[in-house]
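User: quick one, fold this
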Amino acid sequence: MSAVLADYGTEEAAMQAYLAEGEQRAMRLGNRGPIRRTDDGRIHPDILEAYWRCGFYIVEDVLKADELADIEHDFRNQIMDRLPTGPGEPLDHKGRPALDTGCKAPALFWSKPLGDPAGGTSFANGRHPVKMFEPTAPVDAPKDVVYLILGSLQFSEAALRAYGHPDLLAVAAAINGDDFVPFNEAFFIKEPGLGASVAWHQDGVTHWDSPDWDQGSHGFNFMAQLYGCTAANGVWVVPGSHKLGKADIRAMAARAGCDRFPDAVPIICKPGDVAITNRQAVHGSFANTSRDWRVTVNMGFHRRGSVLGVNSAGSLHGKRGIYDEARITERSKVIGYAIDARKRRFPDETPFVYQPHQASGERHVWNDEARAGILNYNLLDLSI
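Assistant:
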């Protein structure tokens, strides 16, 4: 065996050991279980305690088989089958206008297979300061793969309906208050043997030095799993790091001596599980050399008080400017549309009541006019 192959074998063994140990640590945290409510219908405080303690929580069995089938249909037929043949190309592989035709906001983000497109770059305000290890891609791999799709609700009605899930919106209200507001929505895609890494980072830009900063200032993301996620293809989180302010990720990497942070744990989910992940937690993911797909339906929410009157971060998400009531009201329409679309697909559920719409008397009906109206809705994303 050559020295190069021997080194590769040693590295692979170390990685496999790290994955196994991380999964064991994750399962000991006590931050997973089905949705539970108190007698008055509120989210059970045990769920909220574990979320705030760890910075993430896995709500099990949220999306059932019929809803997962709907999302998979849209993902396969309306998204993956409509991707352009390459970055900037106008047509899909069947010669049709590609998925992002007519999109004014950024929608598709590309990487070389098993690459790290963000680490060590200025992407997203430079919040990915350290590059991840990039394994060698298969010789027959495509030149580029899509790993992130923003503005996902305009591409998938099934994703819109998941956005209106009454249990998830109840969690958003419990964490961010009854007047919570949207952030953005996305699909994260990790194809087997091709999926890109996402370098270690914390989300959020605007509030780190604010005198009223706390562990929830930059909101959270729901990460609903279509196929589940494993230690090999899932997001890793440093538990408790959401409480500690702005982390020195370069120093963390220097102490670790590699991109395997010793105190991080993976988010492990079955199909239909949904992770609630604090955006201030240090998190990232490795290139997907496994045989398993990960498709994450990402849905972010903020406190209204963290957004109102704030000058936008000028990142990937939405137009620059001050987030006034008019912009927040317009962007929040999608919550009403999602609730109505879900009611039509799942009429036996009790729909969530969004307090700002109830207070204002707004009524949002999901119909052809609404479908046309949400094209480019993510120009109004509320990025902090």
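User: anything notable?
Assistant: The CA atoms of residues 65 and 298 lie 18 Å apart.
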